[in-house]
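For the sake of transparency, this paper describes our internal protein records without simplification. The remainder of this section carries one protein's record, kept here as part of the documentation:
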Amino acid sequence: MPANARVTLCYGPYESSGVVKHRTIRLQGLQAALRASGHQCVLEETREWNMVELVVSEEIIFICNIKELEFGGDGKLDPVCKEAVTAVENAY
C-alpha cells in the first residue's frame, strides 16, 4: 500500500457514563499512528455500536471494538493501533 493511503475510520456510538453517542476521544491515538505512517484519515459515523472499521480502497481491512482503543495519546503504546497500522500497510 502506498504511504499516503486514504483511510476511512468508520466508528459507531458507545456508552460512557450512561450516555450513548459518537465520540472521537478513543480514535485520537489511532489517527495519530496512521498519520505518523503517512496516511490520511477521514472519520465517518456509523450506526453500529462499539464498532471501528478501517476502510482502504472501499475494502474493510480492520475491525475492532472502539472500547479496546486507549483514550487519547499518540497510539505508540496501544497494541490495537499497531495492529491497525500493520493492516493498512498490508492492504492491497
Notes: The radius of gyration is 12 Å.
